[in-house]
Amino acid sequence: MTKYFLLLLLGLFSLSAHSQTPPPLATPRPVPGELSVGRRDTLKAIGNMYDRRRRGGNRWIILGVAFTGAITRGVLAGGTGNNATGVALTYGVFGGIPAAIGIGKKIRFNENKENEADRAYRSGGALPRSISRRLKSKDFE
Fold this sequence. Notes:
Blueprint: H1 2-19, H2 37-76, H3 84-108, H4 111-122, H5 129-132
């Protein structure tokens, strides 16, 4: 008798558990204008990458200006031996090249280009290769 009673209880529990299972939910449709989590993360990473590149440009410019100041100080102290070509070459190599790199970074990664890339990606376009290859894992943090 207890065996039949236990089988009956097991059958009732399995039916009630089955009947209480909610129907499968439909996958939620994205709200128009709302971005997925992945796209929001990528947009934040794009902003971080542009900021990082602009800060790098500032550092290169500061380095170029510092080298130029140090060279000027040496020239004014009379350490050139009247070698104008050497002075010009030193200015160009140690002052001009770092400053040119910094100015180039500031131009390539200015806020207008960041906003342009942001708008293009928000509208559903693919991320350009020139941007995606520069994104690092630290940009996604």
